[in-house]
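Box 3.1 A note on notation
Throughout this textbook, protein chains are presented in two layers. The first layer is the amino acid sequence; the second is a token string describing backbone geometry. Keep the layers aligned when reading.
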Amino acid sequence: MDFELSDSQKEIRAAVAAACARFGNDYWRSCDERNAYPDEFVKSMSEAGWLAALIPQEYGGAGLTMLEASLILEEINHSGGNAVACHAQMYTMAAILKHGSAEQKRHYLPRIASGELRLQSFGVTEPDAGSETPRIKTFARRDGDSYVINGQKIFTSRYQHSDMLLLLTRTTPFDQVKKKTDGMSLFLVDIKESGSALKAVPIATMVNHGTNQLFIDNLVLPRAALVGEEGKGFSYLLSSLNAERILVASESIGDGRWFVEFATQYANQRRVFDRPIGMNQGVQFPIAKAHVSVRAADLMRFNAAARFDAGVSCGGEANMAKYLASEAAWEAGEAAMTTLGGYGFTKEYHVERKWREARLYRTAPIANNLVLSFVAEHLLGLPRSY
């Protein structure tokens, strides 16, 4: 495997870095303090076509590889930004691309590619189900040529900044299926047309994530809103998870690079007792160790992306990349916080914001303990633990 970027990939990284330079640390700090969505940034990235990286050219997208798409999100976070505001635009559309009808692809994908339509919200998690997705209770009942949906979701992010919502429901009750992952269906919901049937209640969190609890009350959808076949929604969800894992890993790698570079610069400049603090091994070693961890995670990301682009199995690699990258970013964030001491807690230096943001990916979109359970069962052949 060649771990060197091609000239075109280097150009992508440089171009994204240049685009992000317009939105420096102060821009992101302002968004965080106001709990504001970075509309100007998302609009700029959409117009430049970066968020349409994985949409085929026939639908107006860039038709790039997974590795190239991952470099885009990595560079956003490496620049000091937070790609979580728009990363779902890259991978949520995969359900339509892979399983949608010809009409759904024709109608939605070009508009998603141009940025005219935002599909950035995904309703999966529920208060009582958590990571045990088959236990969701939101139910879509057939009523002639329509479905009537009732239930609730939690941690549904970017709802207020999306035009469309991908919604996972049960269409067969859990106690009536032979396999617990059967009987779930995926729907494409036009948020504005849904009116009062959807009610979002924002959840205050430690990061500017725009997350909500979503209440669904007699939402009526036409059969045309169903993605693929009824009852196969869980398998459709799984088809996009590897992409999500790789892209999230890339954001964590970007965070890790930012922390290491910031801490290194500060350690070289900050003088205490007439010497730069970077001379002290107690300062050097945590930064160096974090750098090693970030580089190792980067290699696993390359491996996962290469396998994804080759069309071969990459579930193990994608999950391990997500695990290693999120842990490395957190380690790097801790090193940066320690290096800056009291200044690390001040908003002026931006580290505390990035530290909070980096912590998220140890828990979402899948907790790292569940990644370890996956590795134990599926890669090592140990007994299933849950």
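The mean pLDDT is 96. The first strand starts at residue 119 and ends at 123.
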